[in-house]
């Protein structure tokens, strides 16, 4: 259950700043659907706008990383951070962008493996090999 009320379209239409963001979400995504995260953020119009603009500037622009891969990365980070909402929404987005069931299965195995080995290395406090120093490569 949400800790805030989810804003309806009728309520959003009465607040110009919120209506503008909802309209931009619809236009950017080519869909009339506004997901609950935006409806929850809508009661803070400045925060809504800031969050949408940041997400849009990373996830909805051309770049070196393919949009499907961006969504898959978002799934992995969301799983690591324990955000079930984001796991679901970005899995749906990745599938809409062409992620296959095989790719999803491999992604789940990579997430599980990385979590396990990250915990092992953290627990063992393994020093980083000089060859892996990102500054020198």
Task: Describe the fold and architecture.
- The protein is 67% helix and 0% strand.
- It is an all-alpha fold and 137 residues long.
- The chain has helices at residues 9-13, 16-29, 36-41, 45-59, 67-81, 84-96, 101-124.
- It contains 7 helices and no strands.
- The chain folds into 2 domains: 9-61, Up-down Bundle (AhpD-like); 65-126, AhpD-like, CATH 1.20.1290.10.
- Helix 5 runs antiparallel to helix 6 (84-96).
- The chain is elongated.
Question: Which helices and strands appear, and what pairs or packs with what?
Answer:
Layout: H1 9-13, H2 16-29, H3 36-41, H4 45-59, H5 67-81, H6 84-96, H7 101-124
Helix pairs in contact: 2-4, 5-6, 5-7
Element-level helix/strand string: HHHHHHH
Main beta sheet strand tally, sense and closure = none
Instruction: Indicate how many domains the architecture comprises.
Output: 2
Q: Report low-confidence residues grouped into runs of 5 or more.
A: none
Helical residue percent band: 55-70%
* Strand content bin: under 5%
Distance between the amino and carboxyl termini: 47 Å
CATH superfamily of the largest domain: AhpD-like
Counting DSSP H or I runs of 4 or more residues, the number of helices is 7
Query: What is the highest CATH level, the class of the largest domain?
Result: Mainly Alpha
Report the radius of gyration as a whole number of Å: 19 Å
Number of beta-strand segments? 0
Shape: elongated
User: Which fold name corresponds to the CATH topology of the largest domain?
Assistant: AhpD-like
SS-based class: mainly alpha
CATH architecture of the largest domain: Up-down Bundle
Average pLDDT score: 96
């Amino acid at each position: 259950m949400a800790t805030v009320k989810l804003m309806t379209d009728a309520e959003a239409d009465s607040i110009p700043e919120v209506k503008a963001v909802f309209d931009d979400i619809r236009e950017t995504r080519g869909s009339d659907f506004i997901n609950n995260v935006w409806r929850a953020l809508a009661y803070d119009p400045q925060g809504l706008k800031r969050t949408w603009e940041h997400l849009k500037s990373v996830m909805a622009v051309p770049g070196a990383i393919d949009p499907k891969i961006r969504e898959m990365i978002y799934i992995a980070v969301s799983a690591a951070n324990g955000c079930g909402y984001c796991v679901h929404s970005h899995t749906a987005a990745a599938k809409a962008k062409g992620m296959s069931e095989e790719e999803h299965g491999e992604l789940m195995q990579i997430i599980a493996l990385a979590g396990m080995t990250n915990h092992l290395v953290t627990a063992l406090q393994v020093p980083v090999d000089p060859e892996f120093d990102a500054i020198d490569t």
